[in-house]
Amino acid sequence: MGTKVRAKSQSPISRPESVTPTMPKSRAHEPLRFIAIEGPIRVGKTSLADLLADRLHATRIRDDEDNPFLEPFYDDKPGAAFQAQFHFLIQRFKQWRALDLAAQTDHVIISDYIFEKDKIFAYLNLNDAEIKVYDQYYEMFAEQVPIPDLVIYLQAKPGALRKRIEKKNVSFEPRISDDYLQAVVNAYEHFFFHYKSSDLLVIETSEIDFVDRSEDLQELLHRLSQPVTGTQYFLPLGSASAD
User: Fold this and answer.
1) Triad 28, 32, 33: Cα angle to 5°
2) What is the pLDDT of residue 32?
3) Which end of the chain is less enclosed by CB atoms within 10 A, N or C?
């Protein structure tokens, strides 16, 4: 899930060994066909995916936040977290399973989430008994979905994310606790520290603005025209260094 009002009592990264997939992939220098963008709430995933899709004339895949169980989840109703998470898992699986990369050999696909996002939030919001059930379905689904050629991981400090949450002013988001926001940031950092499924470009966005600063976007487009091998980091030359 994308958000929660407060953190659960259990540690969000207490079960790290089973969160990260272990399917190493080597791309050599082949053209990118499938790019996925990830990061915590309000880090700028959707905006960057829209910009890249426009510039690269790519097919756009969007995470569907229309979940009938979200409102009870935000109200902390018993069982609602499991229902909401399972709904997301099924919808994301259907969307990614339907991708036909073989038919898109000359066309780029850009998604504003990775399939593994579902498990990151499951481990934040579900209890141990729920995780045991969830894991069985997740592992079965994960074997059937494609792996991106490149993942762009957007980072930002919790303070920067909080400012963007306030600026966006989505009805329930200002109620998200600082503890939960920090827990989400920590979970993403832990996940991507161990990520090996595809090539990874890490971008610290606290001082970067791809929407209103065109030079930042141009530098990223230039970087994407070059090979990304393993885990690499990107910082536009004109951007201020993060504190």
Assistant:
1) 125
2) 87
3) C
